Amino acid sequence: MHIGTLTATALLATAALGSGATLVHSWDFDSALPNVPDSVGGADGTGGANVVPTAGQVGPGAYFEKGDGGGFDADGYVDIAAPVDYSASGDFSFSYWVKLDADASTDARGIFDFSGDGGDGPQSLYIQNGGNAGRMAFRVDGSGATNLVAFADVSALEDGDWFHVAGVFDYNGAGSADLDVYINGAPAANASSSFTPATWSTDQYIGAFNVNGVAANRGLGGGIDEFQIYSDLLTPAEISALAAVPEPSSGALALAAVAGLALRRRRNR
Known about the structure:
The structure is a single chain. The chain is mainly beta. Helix content is about 10%, strand content about 35%. A hairpin with an 8-residue loop joins strand 2 and strand 3.
């Protein structure tokens, strides 16, 4: 189900983080491109020429055009200038809105890559062909040759409309981990493995996916909005709240939501 838009402040205020998870990075795409500031953690990004404004699910968003050949190049993604790394702390969560063009593309579509060349850190792409056709891969790399990949079927959501994705990585500190993916607030995929988290690469991108330096068919060709990283684990209830964008019943409701966000941000800084 696709639901109406609301301001970014009101959306974030709907998620009461009772689990201990803290919002540590937020790229909301509300600023004029190419500037993509991190409004919480200071890891600002810069968009290339093929990253253009679009109407987001929550206020403004960004549309990531494919360049010639759909390749991975500096024009087609947001480059995070001050890299972030939560491998040492173990647990973390991602939350974002994404839309996929209804163009029957056969290209793999990069959503984000915090692993440099696909080897160290979390990453995600939508795979439109091959054995995983129509599925979204959400992957977290471990040290050595290990990695966790959860595949969620999102083929029905390739319709040019927004949907919400959350990835929750739970490392138990004893050499094993779980990765859960939620689509529109509902559990969609899970993976578990013996595991030690890898240090995240210093090459980090939103809106693209790089594979061993090969610049081919990795552009998104879609939109991203409200891209966030949380320390620790978001609960299912918190994910449902982030995925639900209710229409305000009155101006007073929207004003109260904004006030709630301001209080939360002061506490989190």
